[in-house]
Amino acid sequence: MSVLEAKAMPLNTPMLNELESGPWPSFFKDLKEYSKKKPVVTQLLNQLEESYENRWNYWLGKIINVPGYGGGVIARVSEKAAKYPGLANFHTVRVIEPPGWVYNTKALRELADAAEKNGAGIIQLHGMSGDILLLGFDDAGAMQCAEDLMHQGWDIGGSGAAMRTLQCCVGQARCEMACYDTMKVTKHLTDTFIAFLHRPEFVYKFKFKLSGCPNDCSNSIVRSDMPIIGTWRGAMKVDQAKVAEFIDAKGLDYVVNNVITRCPTNCLSVKSATKELVVDHENCVRCMHCINVMHKALKVGDDKGVTILIGGKRTLKIGDTMGFVLVPFMKLETDEDLDKLTSFVERVWEFWNDNGMDHERVGEFIHRIGMGTFLDGVGVEPDARMIARPRVTPYIKFEELGPARLGGESGQNPPVWTREPEAAEAMD
Amino acid sequence: MSEKKMAPRDQGAPDYTKYLHPVMAKNYGKWDYHERVRPGVLLHVGTSGDKLWSVRAGSPRTMSADTVRKICDIADKYCQGHVRFTSRSNIEFLVGNEADLKPLITTVEGDLGWPLGGTGPSVSNVSHTQGWLHCNLPGSDAAGSVKALMDDLIDEFKNESLPNRVHISSSCCQINCASHGDISIIVQHHHPPRINHKDMQICELPKVVAICPVAAIRPAVVDGVETVEVVEEKCMYCGACHGQCPSMEIRDSDTDTLSIWVGGKMSNARSKPSFMKLAVWGLPNNPPRWPEVSNAVRKILKAYKEGAKDWERVGEWIERIGWQRFFEKTGFKFTKYHIDDSPEALSTFNRSAQIRI
Ligand code: HEM
Ligand code: SF4
Ligand code: SF4
Ligand code: SF4
Ligand code: SF4
Known about the structure:
Chain A contains 15 helices and 15 strands. Chain A has helices at residues 14-17, 27-34, 40-54, 105-118, 139-151, 182-192, 194-198, 220-223, 240-250, 252-258, 289-293, 335-355, 362-369, 371-378, 420-427; strands spanning 59-62, 73-78, 91-95, 102-104, 122-124, 132-137, 167-168, 208-211, 226-233, 237-238, 268-271, 276-279, 298-299, 303-310, 324-330. In chain A, strands 1-2-3-6-5 form a 5-stranded antiparallel β-sheet. In chain A, strands 7-8-9-14-15 form a 5-stranded mixed β-sheet. Chain A is globular and about 75 Å long. Chain B contains 10 helices and 15 strands. Chain B starts with 21 loop residues before the first helix and ends in a 27-residue tail after the last helix. In chain B, helix 2 packs antiparallel against helix 3. In chain B, the strands form 4 sheets. Chain B has a 5-stranded antiparallel β-sheet with strand order 1-2-3-6-5, covered by helices on one side. A 5-stranded mixed β-sheet of chain B has the order 7-8-9-14-15, with helices on one face. In chain B, strands 10-13 form a two-stranded antiparallel sheet. The mean pLDDT of chain B is 95. With 357 residues, chain B is α+β, with helices and mostly antiparallel strands. The complex binds protoporphyrin IX containing FE and iron/sulfur cluster (4 copies). Residues 169-171, 175, 177-178, 211-213, 215-217 of chain A line the site of one iron/sulfur cluster (SF4).
């Protein structure tokens, strides 16, 4: 039975009814109302009620794809299809969101119409992956929805062992902290590598998330394999007149207790007589705290760029990995800068995919082979800003300090000349 | 005919420049500063002096096509047709004319019924995922449990009365799509997967053997069927195999519980970003309103509100006062299960004589 032909059922939802009132907006109330127009939603809510009653889930996965693509549809079939025939196939279509999640109403109406015309008309803004999620299509409906949206210029999101849909903060569109154009770079990376998003051919998934400054509003550092975070070189900008205004408004105590003493690298002090802020710019690690608090007086510096990190992901398999620094600073403004970034990404992908194991995220890969080997592999020089501290363990294989020994090759022990002749004779 | 024609492929990300509010487009990259006019309303001012108000409201994330159209009607009337969404599923109505602000707020709160808030030092909307509505792996719900929790925390969403912002996330399995938060709720399993040997042929076995983080799965033959077995002593009930293979059922409606984790932080402000740590475990998975979870979250928020300094995030506050005090102040019991036993474990012990006595 198709989603569109599904029959309405009387709602039997005593537990879900308890999610109808209360001050927070209720998805249940919304869907209940909508089910008057969209009969299949009655079946969905009744099945959900059974989940509530039995604390059990009734969805299974399967795989279907939009022709030409290897991902982007999260296929769901209900175990209770006999009872709820409209849920026999009830898939999600992932749609690539506009960078920064900005919309005009024409775009939102297109999504609503495509979702309603072809399926259950349920929309999630947005998936944690960044995508727009449209829920509730049978196979044909999912295909048609995808076609409709692609005719209007939308494209389908990623899934599987592929580059995933990107996600970025609002950046320069509405934030004075932004150190690069997150939306533009997100679109550029998406479009340049779109084939890798649609046709899974990596050893495992690869996520980018982009934040305009170290406040990291897109949560890139723990949610993406390659976090790209805006930053600046040289001094931040200090407007001493506005510092004085801030001190007048908030009081010196506030500044001392909430700004000066909270700098992680102790690079701030205040001259109370002149109401001046003194910044040890060389020692500032761009944590953003003082700028967040005194954002009218303090601004990010003018020589802006990005820090590129690598290896963030959640628990599976080796435990949570936080992204770590790979490129401490690069400019990301001109077309050449963008080319530099994309060819760097290609180098990382090539090395990881040539040498990574099945299901091995890039952070796990680096953990297994060692950062030194990885840096050699992608052609990046070691930089002390990549580490929190140097190694403690003394067991090191110095490539430079193991010259060949008398009569043998480097690293061979015992020396080969005592054994080899005998071995050679024995072979005869 | 044109109906039948295959749509173009590989078009990439939408052209966001078409979607920018005119004030955003004009001041792109030239913003000067922002202010919080009131909880839920931000004002951004460009170097040009242009002003853009963003009215932030909590959305349920999952909505009907009709609700999306309602949003559009409101945005057409007051926002020159432009809105945006945040990474925590809040909506932001973008306002270029100050006169539109008041009627917009009345309409959003009244007609749409969505609360304003989530700005500054408040509890923002809860990051969450599919749950029983639409995933194949969940041990609990998502949209429903978030609704119940936010009903309870509504005052913390609508007011800016906490030391700093609090990001909450709620995940319905240990894949944890909703990620780290200042406070995170996760499902916890307590038994190894139950293997359905009869259905095992549906995928390549090595995939599920390879996915196990502790190599607890090995090929086996049971009743003549090629299948796998799980070494119970090694298995840590993570459920990774279940994500790979539906015949390795990890969930148990009678015994699954919820745990709460604290101190996840992505921002670099002050302290470095940090992972979340276990606070309390063994809470019942109790639909439709999960009161035990709300209760525990409230305890954390209360202690945080009373004890943290301005700007301290939950994790920073705990690091300053010490975990011992955190457990005292929240009343959660510290147990041996709070002590890490992963390969990182040694680095998580108190390797000093620095103790609060
Ligand atoms: C069959 C298996 C899987 C399915 C069907 C699936 C599905 C999904 C869905 C629907 C979302 C979006 C959730 C939402 O916002 O509603 C998501 C996000 C996510 N998934 Fe998966 N997932 C699967 C396996 C995995 C595995 C094995 C991992 C871990 C390696 C994983 C990690 C994540 C993470 C971290 C997110 C959050 C998005 C982000 O931070 O980019 N998933 N997944
Ligand atoms: S990450 Fe920085 S630039 Fe981006 S929205 Fe947040 S504060 Fe602004
Ligand atoms: S940005 Fe952070 S590190 Fe730099 S001066 Fe300000 S508080 Fe210190
Ligand atoms: S957390 Fe687990 S159950 Fe929930 S949506 Fe993500 S994969 Fe599915
Ligand atoms: S639950 Fe986790 S540890 Fe146990 S067998 Fe499955 S993958 Fe391995």
